[in-house]
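Deliverable D5.2: sample structural annotation.
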Amino acid sequence: MVQIPPRKQNSSSGNSSSGLGARGIYENLREQIVAEVYGRGDVLPSARALAVELGVSRTTVTSAYEQLAAEGFVVIRHGARPRVAIKITHSEPGDLVHTAAEPHGLSAFAERLRSRAIPMRAASERLVADFRYGDMSASDFPTLAWRKAMNDAALGRPPKLSYGDPCGSIRLRAALQGYLWRARSIRCEVGDIVVVNGSQQGLDLCARLLLDEGDGFAIEEPCYPMARSVFEVTGAIAAPVEVDAEGIRGDLLADVGARLAYVTPSHQFPLGSVMSMGRRLQLLRWAQEKRAYIVEDDYDSEYRFDMNPIPPLRALGGASNVIYIGTVSKTLSPLLRIGYVVVPRELQEVFAHAKRLTDRHAPSLEQEALATLVESGAYEAHVRKARRQNARRRAALLDALQAEFRDLVRVEGAEAGLHVVVWFADMPPSMATSLIEKAASLGVGIHSISPHYFDPALDRSCLGLVMGYASLTESQIHRGLKLLRRAYEEATGCGDVS
């Protein structure tokens, strides 16, 4: 007799009044076959007999037997009762159990990736205020305009659904061509633009196409860790170059042998300095002499407050070897995963091939929706509105820092972008963990600048925090800074700092 205990099943499983469905019968029989309650070659009850025994329909039992047969557990022949397979080819559950052992057979790329993995971001929904850089306020997103543009894109679908141009929608690229000229003074052809899934994919394409194992690449110190990692996992060797108030130090570049230099000239990440014109020209000359490419990450260039805009490297004369990367993550939303790369003409073909192999192309509907916003002027209107809103948040942050800490902190990089660096004059970097933990216990998320440095000891006599504000309300900023002051007092034991 088949021992199958009744199981409570969902009504959608095609069960009879007994509550036992085809899946339950299948699972129980499978377990008994694997446990060799039924040996290899044993005969099972007919579908009719088992249905009567279990009080279910014959169809239910037949479905269970057919699934077992499809997986190689039983053999079904017309007019005969099911028989347990002599040789079961299906992997048994015990064969599928994975332990926590180290993975084996990884490529050199995968091993480098494991050794340089950046920790995943922890959820912060329960915090009073999280000053994490990169988060944006959902209330800033132009929901109505985007929804209309997406609806129009869906309704305007082509007569057939097929893969698109790997470089992106020609309509969006044409719209971006005009936008880059109006907003960033960049002259380029539509064919120079490759639409990517966010700036990170643009960096990845640059790394794969321009660097081999053992090659050198120049990068700012401190830097954007995700850029550093994407270049290093190719096996290339980083040459960190110190940054000061004018940007990357050109005098230190002279002896650097590299095939690529990664820079953030419009708003250095994370320190916030703007590369001077003299340094820009110096960098361009270095690249020409070394026959190297410059990867210019213009990640939040739309946000300028107490400064006049300086043209990006790509807009200057002699910039034919500059690869320009932009994104809508800091203007619309990081959820959209839309960015763009302006590549030198000689790299157009190889970038197109690489993009096609990576993911065919970026999502088509989102590309068409963004093209609608750019063409209509709605995108630039939204950018102006977002700039005003973030200017208010920035002012709130600076006011709150002054009110709560006065001369105990020094703020750097507030003239542009969506974050500042806050240096605590009387706290050594070694106190970062204590301050972060005490702040978190009070409901405030703060983030150390240390992970951005190759050399943690470089010119850092005091603790620094990278503080983003674009996802917070002004009241959250003020409340968060009050709580941070409490955490500071607890960490230092100095009492009221006022």
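Annotation notes: The first helix runs from residue 22 to 34. Confidence is low (pLDDT under 50) at residues 6-18.
The annotation will be released with the project's public dataset once the embargo ends.
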